[in-house]
Amino acid sequence: MKTTRRQLLAGAAALAAGSLAPATPAQEAPAAAAPPRFRLSLAAYSFRDLLPRGEKKGVMTLHDLLDKCAEWRLDAFEPTSYYFSSEETAYLHSLKAKAFRLGLAISGTAVGNNFCLPPGEDRDRQMADMKRWIGNAVEIGAPIIRVFAGSKNARADRDTAYGWAVEGLREACDYAGTRGVFLAIENHGYLTESADDVLRLLRAVDNEWFTVNLDTGNFDDDPYGNMAKLAPESLNVQVKAAVKVNGKKETADYPRIAEILRAANYRGYVALEYEEDADPMTAVPDHLAKLRAALDAV
Hints:
Elements: H1 5-20, E1 39-42, H2 62-71, E2 76-77, H3 89-101, E3 105-106, E4 109-110, H4 121-140, E5 144-147, H5 158-179, E6 182-186, H6 195-205, E7 210-215, H7 223-230, E8 234-239, E9 242-245, E10 248-251, H8 254-263, E11 269-272, H9 280-296
Parallel strand pairs: 1-11, 2-3, 4-5, 5-6, 6-7, 7-8, 8-11
Antiparallel strand pairs: 9-10
């Protein structure tokens, strides 16, 4: 049967009226989506006594540790730079390939840089190492590198060393940006003792490729207060099994750490960095289970 213009107009009017009617329960907006699941990683530093470093031969390799990460149902792995058997492209690609085959991401890596140095050969060597590892990060598919301000310099006061660190980090970040790699300053010792110190550096360097690596175990006092202050600016998090309160070691409160990260709407990787004395082959999976339970509960 042919539809008349009057029938079309009547149908349109009915639709319009329906759109103005109060929403029924079935038409109400859906509930807010659940927050994203935290993604768990493992820092190779957790197995520092078992991995090769320099002239020291290890009893396992980064490739072996990738197998363990898959066995422990992790989302990712951080192959810390100190334990690479080679920097040849083929070796770097072999790590990337194995991780991909195992369903693991490379969450990042770390470089032990020291930028608290005056202009000169030592500083140039540090910068060359940093830029080389930025290139290595690209080859293994690491989106971020944990970096440091540097070590206390007996020949310079804190303000002078701070200026050197800012200059070095700016240059490194300028290069990192050309390679698409974030550099994350870690709260680790000199010039980064507190969250305020780290945030001061973050603002001074002022580069879109410069961010924060929150290490939960490196604050000397008020660890949870410092975590809460730093978490909103962090793109990477390292969780340790212990914290320091008034300079004294205490067992880390994983549920409290998880709540801090959720409150900050943190969306990056959470890497366990186990530094205690127990055998990591047994202690690490135990701590991963506890950390996973805490993260899944918030």
